[in-house]
């Protein structure tokens, strides 16, 4: 018998130390830079403060993963919005991505 539970979650891929800087550079090049850069910086500042208090990098990794997901889906979302389809039944990003911790 194994001491490991068979339902153990698979750990996320590690975040590179430069991931936040690379992400910020991508955000600055985005068409939504005027709103996304300040929002990212605010999320990053909040996560940095949480990390200082908890001695954990998880809050910082969560911010990077969330913003990476936003960047990955921006084209699809833009195309959907431009199509004129009804988006009243939308789902919040946090609900779609689930608990990232």
What does this entry look like structurally?
This protein is mainly alpha-helical. The chain has a domain at 56-83 and 93-101. The chain has four helices and no strands. Helix 1 packs antiparallel against helix 2 (33-54) and helix 1 runs parallel beside helix 3 (58-82). The chain is globular, with a radius of gyration of 17 Å.
Question: What's the total number of strands?
Answer: 0
Mean pLDDT: 84
Outline: globular
Q: Please, how many helices? A: 4
Largest sheet: none
- Structural category: mainly alpha
Q: What is the radius of gyration?
A: 17 Å
Strand content: under 5%
Task: Please provide the ordered H/E string of secondary-structure elements.
Answer: HHHH
CA-CA gap between termini:
29 Å
Specify the helix fraction band: 55-70%
Unreliably modeled segments: none
Topology:
Layout: H1 19-29, H2 33-54, H3 58-82, H4 93-97
Helix pairs in contact: 1-2, 1-3, 2-3
Outline of the structure:
The chain is mainly alpha-helical. Helix content is 62%, strand content 0%.
């Amino acid at each position: 018998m194994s001491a490991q539970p068979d339902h153990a979650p698979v750990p996320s891929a590690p975040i590179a130390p430069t991931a936040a800087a690379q992400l910020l550079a991508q955000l600055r090049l985005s068409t939504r830079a005027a709103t996304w850069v300040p929002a990212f910086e605010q999320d990053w500042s909040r996560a940095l403060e949480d990390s200082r208090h908890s001695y954990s990098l998880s809050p910082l990794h969560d911010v990077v993963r969330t913003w990476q997901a936003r960047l990955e889906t921006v084209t699809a979302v833009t195309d959907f919005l431009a199509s004129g389809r009804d988006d009243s039944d939308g789902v919040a990003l946090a609900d779609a991505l689930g608990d990232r911790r």
